[in-house]
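Postdoc handover notes: sequence design on the structure in folder B. Input tokens:
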């Protein structure tokens, strides 16, 4: 199942990406890791190799198109076939619109990392994924694309864009050997979410638990993965939007 797969993972130097890289490598996959922080990325590769796994690493800033192109050119020169692309790297900003009037760059930064970077990676790697005959694109997204959440306008907007693009791509690639999975994570306790102090005391997933969802996605190739609460709540939101929006204002992470 995993032994003959070559898997590209972005944001692999820490958090969910690091945990997923280790889990998948332990199952026999060859992992290709991308992140900005070279020292941390090399540590992940060393950990994987110490466990007997196979890992390659590439340093780059995914907010810059020219760096993505250089990265993917180098990856494709060394790995002719890519079986799985995991778009995990992301940026989260929690700030109400009223406080963002002088911070238009909040929206630009989220779109650069959460939407344009995955799209560029998919564009560049799609021929190699098609060459696999069993290609798979996995995108880390959020429950916030399915439900209302005050204060996350830039972040959720970028992830909604990714969801919509992924749904279109899934339909276009049907019959061509490409699967597309959206993982709607709830709160995951990482350095990114930990920047909001109020989140630290809320129940959430560990990076290892979240990585388990990625491993499950690689194995089963579902259209989407989410927890039961998100699935039920999104159904209620479709039927009773006003009620759910009022209830969401009472949640501890709402602004």
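Designed sequence:
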């Amino acid at each position: 199942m995993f032994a003959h797969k070559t898997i590209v993972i972005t944001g692999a130097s820490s958090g969910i990406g690091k945990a997923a890289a280790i889990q998948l490598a332990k199952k026999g996959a060859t992992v290709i890791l991308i992140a900005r922080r070279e020292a941390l990325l090399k540590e992940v590769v060393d950990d994987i190799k110490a466990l007997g796994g196979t890992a390659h690493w590439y340093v780059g800033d995914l907010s810059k198109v020219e760096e993505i192109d250089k990265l993917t050119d180098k990856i494709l020169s060394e790995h002719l076939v890519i079986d799985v692309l995991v778009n995990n790297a992301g940026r989260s900003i929690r700030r109400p619109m009223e406080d963002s009037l002088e911070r238009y760059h909040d929206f630009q930064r989220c779109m650069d990392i959460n939407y344009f970077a995955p799209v560029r990676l998919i564009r560049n790697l799609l021929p190699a994924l098609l060459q696999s005959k069993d290609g798979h694109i996995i995108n880390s997204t959020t429950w916030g694309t399915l439900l209302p959440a005050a204060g996350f306008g830039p972040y959720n907007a970028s992830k909604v864009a990714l969801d919509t693009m992924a749904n279109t791509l899934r339909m276009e690639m049907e019959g061509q050997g490409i699967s597309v999975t959206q993982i709607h994570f709830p709160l995951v306790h990482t350095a990114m979410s930990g920047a909001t102090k109020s989140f630290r005391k809320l129940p959430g997933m560990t990076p290892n638990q979240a990585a388990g969802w990625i491993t499950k996605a690689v194995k089963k190739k579902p259209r989407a993965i989410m927890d039961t609460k998100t699935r039920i709540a999104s159904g209620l939101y479709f039927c009773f939007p006003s009620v759910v929006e009022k209830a969401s204002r009472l949640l501890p992470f709402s602004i």
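Context for whoever picks this up: The beta strands are 6-10, 30-35, 54-59, 84-87, 135-142, 178-185, 224-225. Don't rerun without checking with the PI first.
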